[in-house]
Design brief:
Blueprint: E1 6-7, H1 17-26, H2 45-62, E2 68-73, H3 76-88, E3 94-99, H4 102-114, E4 116-122, E5 143-149, E6 151-152, E7 157-158, E8 170-173, E9 190-194, E10 205-210, H5 227-232, H6 242-257, H7 261-280, E11 286-288, E12 299-304, H8 307-319, E13 322-323, E14 334-337, H9 344-361
Helix pairs in contact: 1-6, 2-6, 3-4, 7-9
The structure holds pyridoxal-5'-phosphate.
Residues 11, 76-78, 103, 149, 153, 173, 175-176, 194, 197 line the site of pyridoxal-5'-phosphate.
InterPro entries: Aminotrans_V_dom, Aminotrans_V_PyrdxlP_BS, Pser_aminoTfrase, PyrdxlP-dep_Trfase, PyrdxlP-dep_Trfase_major, PyrdxlP-dep_Trfase_small
Pathway: Amino-acid biosynthesis; L-serine biosynthesis; L-serine from 3-phospho-D-glycerate: step 2/3
Modified residues (N6-(pyridoxal phosphate)lysine): 197
């Protein structure tokens, strides 16, 4: 067996070994076609089947009704930051944003380029260490939408429940926690996610959008930037990122083989608790960045009292086969990203390493 690292990368991130092996088997010759899926026309029956089946799997796994389109787009979640206001923020309306951290901030910045925005709630005064209380969210009049970041990848915080925004569409950036836990899709007007954390490799962005919202784009909007273009063409208006969609297909089947999203959520909780316990039982040697009631099940952020020790932690962890434990440059410290494909074994190994490191340096 090849030597697999304990991969805690934030994104692109670990993929299930089984998925990589399946892809490898089909890499050169896809189901006897004499070519890989990458070398085929996106209009071929074989690719159309991948495209349709991947949508169907996502619908089934997340309970997505016929009220929604499931789209496979390009440009990453970062393009969505601009694309949803371009489509949904009319000149007389306000885009409302819940400010939870670095990614919410990037979404807001793009929204401001397109139209009028407002901050519906913010935890910036707390250094984004928590998710604002749902009761603190104020939806402005004329709101076109309320935007949230369901999991803040850099700060390591996550919405534990979602706000009820009544008639105002709730839009969520779920890039770093899509399919990590059950979600009631009907609460949302739109959900989007770059694939490279929980869904597959980079290159495809999943958009789940209520059908009525996908029909309201301004007439002047360029073709490729309109949701209705992609909806009408089954995400095949132009050449799709076919290999990435194929990989998402395999990842969805892998989630299914684990028993679905609910089971995966259980596995995630058990995995992440190993690391949070190592923090909580360290007597203050490790300090969690996020408030306990806002802790993410996908990105565990923590610090040690000296930056010297943090550097040493990263260095020694790398020598022992761990990858990706350095915190994001904007908040510093340490971060373990524990997405769906990160194994229980990796998390167990990290918890042991943390205890051992503390013993030697505490
Ligand atoms: C990674 C990430 C993004 C950026 O995704 P790209 O696909 O690189 O544009 C946006 N939002 C969140 C929450 C992320 O974790």
């Amino acid at each position: 067996m090849t030597n697999r690292a304990y991969n805690f990368n934030a994104g692109p991130a670990a993929l299930p070994l089984e998925v990589l092996q399946q892809a490898q088997e089909q890499f050169v010759d896809y189901h006897g076609a004499g070519m890989s899926i990458m070398e085929m026309s996106h209009r071929s029956a074989a690719y159309e089947q991948v495209n349709n089946e991947t949508q169907a799997l996502l619908r089934e796994m997340y309970g997505i009704s016929d009220n929604y389109h499931v789209l496979f787009l390009q440009g990453g979640a970062s393009t969505q930051f601009a694309m949803f206001p371009m489509n949904l923020l009319a000149p007389d309306r306000v885009g409302a944003y819940v400010m939870t951290g670095s990614w919410a901030d990037k979404a807001l910045k793009e929204g401001k380029l397109i139209g009028e925005t407002a901050i519906a709630a913010s935890s910036e005064a707390d250094e984004y260490r928590r998710i604002p209380a749902l009761s603190d969210i104020v939806i402005p009049e004329r709101a076109a939408y309320v935007h949230i970041t369901s999991n803040e990848t850099i700060e390591g915080t996550q919405f534990q429940a979602f706000p009820d925004t009544k008639d105002v569409p709730l839009i969520a950036d779920m890039s770093s926690d899509i399919l990590s836990r059950p979600v009631d899709i009907n609460k949302f007007g739109m959900i989007y996610a770059g694939a490279q954390k929980n869904l597959g490799p980079s290159g495809v962005t999943v958009v789940i959008i209520r059908k009525d919202l996908a029909e309201s784009s301004p007439k002047t909007l360029p073709t490729m930037l309109r949701y209705d273009t992609h909806a009408k063409n089954n995400s095949l208006y132009n050449t799709p990122p076919s290999f990435s969609v194929f990989m998402v297909n395999l990842v969805l089947k892998w989630i299914q083989s684990k028993g679905g999203v609910e089971q995966v959520a259980e596995l995630n909780r058990a995995k992440t608790n190993l690391i949070y316990n190592a923090i909580d039982q360290s007597g203050g040697f490790y300090k969690g960045f996020a408030h306990t009631d806002s802790r993410s099940m996908m990105n565990v952020t923590f610090r040690i009292h000296s930056e010297e020790l943090e550097k040493q932690f990263v260095k020694e962890s790398e020598q022992q086969g761990f990858v990706g434990l350095k915190g994001h440059r904007s908040v510093g410290g340490l971060r373990a990203s524990t997405y769906n494909a990160v194994t229980h074994e990796s998390c167990q190994a990290l918890a042991s390493f943390m205890a051992d490191f503390q013993k030697r340096n505490g």
